[in-house]
């Protein structure tokens, strides 16, 4: 039987600083009601000074490895928009700190779709025989790239990390990742972006203006495209897997905004209660959001072995993707 990537462990980590809506109201022209009604967010967590993306990735990765019962891994993929450094990648340092030895380790940059891309990458490593076990981490310190005076972004994003351990197994096992659908549209790259920091804004060696180093997003256009692309991608993988929408027990979508997730569930014809949500507690954590939602739902006992999950995400690039799996039996802390 064809080799498949099977979920063997799950973990997550949040930084210690909790920022409530009340904290933001004190310095921004906004209100708790405005934030909740538009985003569904009550609080988010922010990495304190001295805490890097790799610190959160190591913490989440260690928990996932423990959850997997020490299953060996010979590759690591880190999905992040906020790496420790522009060069080198963050993953090798994370692998070193986790004591994984000289394993293959690299980053994936697809913004909020990053974890889905990383999962597909890891599944490919297992399918082709290049790895027997892969640790996949989504980790972000998005607070580092937000303009603190920008109400439209500061209220939405938070920091955090989530991880899955994948092992080689059979496609008919619980935990096996199903078919993937991935896509992109570079014509929309300006809708979700940090304009400066790369080669494009420094053609003559001069420094770009400071405001170009902040994250920006065109919310209204992103809302429409996110629902459209995620719903299409989700239907594509369901068709490939031979699943009917009514057979999906849980929708685990990128936690972008509670209205986007609700609209997506409605578009797919899924009852709202089947959509996993933790955005109220942690905000939008970009590439970390899908694994964070999985770990929080698992820890809360919301995911039972044998239940069918549909994962999907949308992010900058523009990028999007989806996959399916049947949740395995995993120990809970």
TrEMBL record:
It is an enzyme of class 2 (transferase). Keywords: Acyltransferase, Cytoplasm, Fatty acid biosynthesis, Fatty acid metabolism, Lipid biosynthesis, Lipid metabolism, Multifunctional enzyme, Transferase. Its main location: cytoplasm. One of its GO terms (molecular function) is beta-ketoacyl-acyl-carrier-protein synthase III activity. Pfam families: ACP_syn_III, ACP_syn_III_C. Belongs to the thiolase-like superfamily. FabH family. Homodimer. This is Beta-ketoacyl-[acyl-carrier-protein] synthase III. It comes from Streptomyces gamaensis. The gene is fabH.
């Amino acid at each position: 039987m064809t080799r498949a990537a099977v979920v063997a462990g799950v973990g997550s980590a949040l930084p210690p600083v909790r920022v409530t809506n009340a904290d933001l109201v004190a310095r921004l022209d906004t209100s708790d009601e405005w934030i909740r009604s538009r985003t569904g967010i009550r609080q988010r967590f922010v990495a304190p000074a001295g805490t890097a993306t790799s610190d959160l990735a190591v913490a989440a990765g260690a928990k996932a490895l423990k959850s997997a019962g020490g299953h060996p891994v010979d590759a690591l993929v880190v999905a992040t928009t906020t790496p420790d450094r522009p060069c080198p990648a963050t993953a090798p340092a994370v692998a070193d700190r986790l004591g994984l030895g000289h394993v293959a380790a690299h980053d994936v940059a697809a913004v909020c779709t990053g974890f889905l891309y990383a999962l597909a990458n890891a599944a490919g490593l297992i399918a082709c025989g290049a790895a027997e076990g892969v640790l996949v981490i989504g980790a972000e310190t998005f607070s580092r790239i937000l303009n603190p005076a920008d109400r439209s972004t500061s209220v939405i994003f938070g920091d955090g990390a989530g991880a899955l351990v994948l092992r080689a197994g059979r496609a008919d096992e619980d935990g096996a990742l199903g078919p993937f659908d991935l896509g992109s549209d570079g014509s929309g790259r300006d809708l979700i972006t940090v304009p400066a920091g790369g080669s494009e804004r420094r053609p003559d060696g001069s420094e770009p203006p400071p405001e170009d180093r902040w994250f920006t997003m065109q919310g209204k256009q992103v809302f429409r495209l996110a629902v459209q692309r995620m719903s299409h991608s989700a239907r594509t993988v369901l068709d490939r897997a031979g699943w009917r929408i009514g057979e999906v027990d849980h929708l685990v979508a990128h936690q972008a905004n509670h209205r986007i997730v609700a609209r997506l569930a409605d578009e797919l014809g899924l009852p709202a209660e089947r959509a996993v949500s933790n955005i109220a507690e942690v905000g939008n954590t970009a590439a970390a959001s899908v694994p964070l939602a999985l770990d929080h739902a698992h820890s809360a006992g919301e995911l039972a072995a044998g239940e069918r999950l549909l994962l999907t995400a949308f992010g900058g690039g523009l990028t999007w993707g989806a996959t399916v799996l049947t949740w395995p039996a995993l120990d809970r802390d």
